[in-house]
Every structure is written in C-alpha cells, then in structure tokens.
Fold this protein.
Amino acid sequence: MSSSMSRLRHALPPGLLSLLLSVVGFSPLLAAPFKLPALNSPASTEHHVGKVVWADLVTPDLAAAERFYGGLLGWTFQSIHAGDSDYALALANGHPVGGLYQKPLRAGEQQPAWLTFIAVRDVDANLRIALGQGAKVVSPARSYPKRGRQAVLADPEGAVFAILASSSGDAPDFLAAPGEWIWSALLSRDPGAEAAFYQEVFSYDVFDLASEDGKEHVILSSDNFARASANALPGDSVHSHPHWLNFIRVDDTIARVAKAVASGGRVLVAPHVDRHGGHVAVVADPAGAPFGLMEWTESDSKVEPK
C-alpha cells in the first residue's frame, strides 16, 4: 500500500486531515444509556487483540447518513433510541459493522468522522499500558451488557481511537466482503514511534514496508494477519493532525466514487491503482466524514509480511 498511501497523504488538504475525532463528538455517545447489541450473534469464542472490529460515526443528520451509506454500500440499519439520542446500527451483508450516532454540531466543532475500535481482551489493562506509553483518555472505560467494555483514547500524537473488549468475542479472520471494513491506516508525524506505541498496547508484530516515496510505512500485524498500517504525514502538513482512516471493500471503486458524488459526497483522493493492483480512493460523505474505498482481489492475502 506504499504508493497508494503516499497519494492519500499528499492529496488530502490540511483542513481535512485535521478534521478527526473530537472529545466533544464522542463522549456523549459513550456516556448515553444505549443498549448496544452484541458484535457477534451467535457469539464467537475467538479473540484477536489488535484487530479493527468496529467503527462509529457521529453525524448531524442520521437520516441523511443512512440514505447515503445505504445507497452507496447496500447497508441496512436498525434504530436504537435512548431518550433524545438516536443511534443506528449499520449492517453489511446482514452483519453489524458499525454505528451511526446523531449529534448536532456547534460552531467551531470539527467535522463528522469515523472512530476506529480495536479489539482487546481487557480494556482496563490495555488502558493502563496505553497511559503509561503517553496516551490520554478521551472517554473513560464503560461497560455495555451485550457489547462489552470500551474506552476512547488519544495516542501520543493525538490520533483518537477506541479499544473494545467484546462480550460476544471477535469475528473470525476471513477476507472482508464488499461493503465491509477491510483496512485501516494511521497517518502520523512519526510512524516508527507511533508503531512502537501501538506495539506496546496491542503486542503487534511490526514490519517496515518498502515504499516508492522514501517515506516511512509500517505494517501492524497480529495473529499472522496484517491489521493496519502507520504512514507518514507529508512534511509540509503543518496544520494537519494525526488520525486514523478506515477503508471499505468495494467491487468497483470508480463506480462507487461516482455514486458517492451523485449522492452528495465529495472526492478527497481520486481513484488510482494501489500496489495490489486494484483501485483505491478516499471520499467524504455529505456531512464531511472521510472514508476510503478499496478493491481487493480474492487471491490477495492479508497474511502478515515476512
């Protein structure tokens, strides 16, 4: 993914690179008395520490977000109401993949964005490790009977992510189907230092990835599966903020990008060929939340590099 990530880093303007997740945006979500459903039904006995297992979106218009993602990706939704709060469970191919939470944006707040959840076995233990390595708490650990226990953190560079110990286990390691999350990338000022942080927290195997741009690219793996990458922000990105960017597998990136634009989205990074041979792009939904679209062949493996 090296040449691809180089394009992503340099094509995203500073204003969009810095839109990431705010404390104001996600704290109400985790504090609300939602009865969140289990990640896996029936429950799985598998646990894959370091795997990206969930994503949540904070958006000012839930109905509009459902129309956009449903039309673009074929997602369906189940509504969950708690007082004045509205949350929709997103399902791809009948399986839960994320949640959409409606929250009005006040003047000066950052744009909507997707929050990345990474699997752990013990939230409190991993939280202590992360804090010892320079992380900060964005939203404290909280338990949900069916979902499990979760917390939101900011890593040493300020990139926000969540940790989740699922009550129903983690999904098996199989290739994501179209419409499901397939990759996550951390864009940072110092990928090596950030990779070392995440290695301490999640016990990742870390591999340097050869690149054409001369910049640092690192693969984070666990259980012999490549989970994510850490990539350098461009050197001139003074105003950009380190952040996580998640990618959804699609059959035809170019067609999905055109549909996203026709549905009110915007192109942030135009479709281009990834090193795996498929097209990859980054778009923003109508409210401004960015996410990636990525083709992935059935023959291309996610087994960790050696």
Observations:
- The helical segments are 2-11, 14-17, 23-31, 62-73, 123-132, 191-202, 253-262.
- Residues 113 and 289 are 4 Å apart (CA to CA).
- Residues 2-19+173-294 form a domain with the 2,3-Dihydroxybiphenyl 1,2-Dioxygenase; domain 1 fold (CATH 3.10.180.10).
